[in-house]
Design a protein that fits this description.
15% strand; seven-stranded mixed beta sheet; two-stranded antiparallel ribbon; single chain; 2 domains
């Protein structure tokens, strides 16, 4: 403890101090929170092993010297190392579900969470889905969310990273879905010959070379493998579009998030009728194509 921090006695004190220091340091927020106050609160409560819905009165309880040190250490790691809060807590909420995360996976934040929570309506009928594929699964959050959404479906969670699949397996076990969600080591479709799906959903790498260079420090804590996708950000999406029709059922649907590479995608495939999903809670650049459309425009890919 320093002279400055010796006067910090309660969780409320540390949350206020953390918020001020985060703002002063110019931290970037976008891995679970969008502001310094919420980020500081999450870290302080985590360091004290307290729930997020802690009654307000407890925020004024005096901390022990050991607790003060624990809180300060975590807040300083966020400031000095620019590590996203989700990696410091090994926790992230996605589609209302709790997930373990570490530096082997991207921090879950896709707007696809909103689609999961709404049952993918109106594009998909839940009773029509028997098999789902989550390409580039990372932590397994989309695959596990789909398993909760489609109660009778089996879900394959594919990733090229062994470390990411280790995290996905932890989350599959955490949610008790060992019999329904299968983590699979594969370079996109390479290990899936002969399998077909009613829904293929993907949040693949889609960050362009220029965008990678301009990302805040916090994003550079995440695995490059999950972000970078060539000069235009389309290297992985292009491969998916070329191959995916072989793995969709005739009535199947493909949904892919492409982030800020959406404009480049439309410019590359001007004839393809991408349906862009609108989100109520923010987020953009998730498109839908049907199996029929993918076959019709196969020569464009």
């Amino acid at each position: 403890m320093t002279t400055e921090t010796e006067s910090l006695l309660t969780p409320r004190d540390f949350i206020r101090w953390g918020m001020s220091r985060f703002s002063e340091a110019g931290l970037f927020f976008g891995h679970g929170t969008d502001n310094a106050l919420d980020e500081a609160a999450i870290l302080v409560l985590h360091a004290l092993h307290l729930p997020g819905d802690l009654p307000a009165a407890y925020l004024d309880a005096r901390l022990t010297p050991q607790e003060q040190e624990q809180v300060l250490e975590l807040l300083m790691r966020r400031i000095d190392k620019r590590v996203p809060a989700a990696y410091l807590t090994n926790k992230m909420i996605f589609a209302g579900l709790d997930f373990y995360v570490n530096e082997d996976v991207l921090v879950p934040r896709s707007p696809i969470a909103e689609l999961i929570e709404s049952g993918f309506e109106p594009w998909i009928r839940a009773d029509s889905v028997g098999r789902v594929l989550d390409l580039c699964t990372g932590s397994g959050c989309i695959a596990i969310g789909c398993a909760h959404c489609f109660q009778n479906a089996s879900v394959d969670a594919v990733d090229i990273s062994p470390g990411a699949l280790d995290v996905a397996r932890i989350n599959v076990q955490r949610h008790g879905l060992e019999g329904r969600v299968e983590p699979i080591l594969s370079n996109l479709f390479d290990g899936l010959k002969g399998w077909r799906y009613d829904l293929i959903v993907s949040n693949p790498p889609y960050v362009s070379m220029d965008e990678m260079e301009g990302l805040p420090i916090e994003y550079h804590q995440e695995p490059v493998l999950g972000l970078a996708a060539g000069e235009e950000g389309l290297d992985i999406v292009a491969i998916i579009l070329q191959q995916v029709s072989e793995f969709l059922e005739p009535s199947g649907i493909l949904m892919i998030e492409v982030g800020n590479s959406a404009e480049a995608l439309v410019e590359r495939y001007p004839r393809v009728p991408f349906l862009w999903i609108e989100f109520e809670r923010g987020g953009h650049s998730v498109f839908l194509l049907t199996a029929e459309q993918l076959i019709e425009y196969q020569t464009d890919f």
